[in-house]
Amino acid sequence: MQEITGGEFGHYMLTFESTAFRFEQQPAYVVAYEAEYFASWRAGDPRDPREMPELAAWLPMVRDWVGQGRRIERVRIHQDPPTDYQRWVRWAGQHNVEAGEVIHYATPERAHEVGLLPDAGPYDWWLLDDARLLRMTFDDDQQCIAMHLITDEPSLDRARTWRDLAIRAAAD
Predict the structure, then answer these.
(1) What percent of the chain has pLDDT above 90?
(2) 64: domain range?
(3) Angle of CA points 144, 147, 152, to nearest 5°
(4) How far apart (Å, rounded) are the C-alpha atoms in residues 146 and 137?
């Protein structure tokens, strides 16, 4: 396991060849560029999330990758009923889906039933090409405080199993 910078994280994300799978389980994410968009949505005056520079850059890449035959997929663990933040993410995520991402949702209870949680730990992660695991650690305030690249085979085997369990939890 190797700690990586945001730039290195971005490099790995941009260079996957076939599949990128994201597991998201934080109840919310404190990301500065989202704050005003989420606040306006909560106030009943939603702004187009595609105006966020980060999403405006991400969506064309997704379209391009999917056009090349790559697959971008996520499973999000959301409460039932979803929190305000989770409802906003679902609303904004429609643009990710339109760009070609596949997004699934599962409850924490369902993730426990299939054996995904607590085994997968408290982390979010991307599994790229089944060969690189980018793990993100969050603090109690939902801010990402560390990112790690993991490439050892036992960890990748576990991540592949967790991915399959996450998809199973979302499918039922």
Answers:
(1) 95
(2) 2-171
(3) 145
(4) 5
Residues forming a β-bridge with 77: 106
66 with 93: CB under 8 angstroms? Answer: no
Which residue matches tokens 């500065």? 32
pLDDT at residue 171 is higher than 90: no
pLDDT number for residue 1: 86
Overall domain count for the chain: 1
Provide the pLDDT confidence category of residue 172 given band limits of 50, 70 and 90. low
Cβ neighbours of residue 138 closer than 8 Å, sequence gap 6 or more: 26, 29, 122, 123, 124, 144, 145
Quote the pLDDT of residue 129.
98
Which of 154, 156, 116, 122 lies closest to 137, judged by CA?
A: 122
Using CA atoms, how far residue 154 sits from 25, 50, 159, 160, in Å, is: 22, 38, 9, 10
Rounded distance, CA 57 to CA 52, Å? Answer: 9
Q: How much is the pLDDT for 143? A: 92
CATH code where residue 71 lies:
3.30.870.10
Distance of alpha carbon 163 from alpha carbon 131, whole angstroms: 13
Mean pLDDT of 54-72: 96
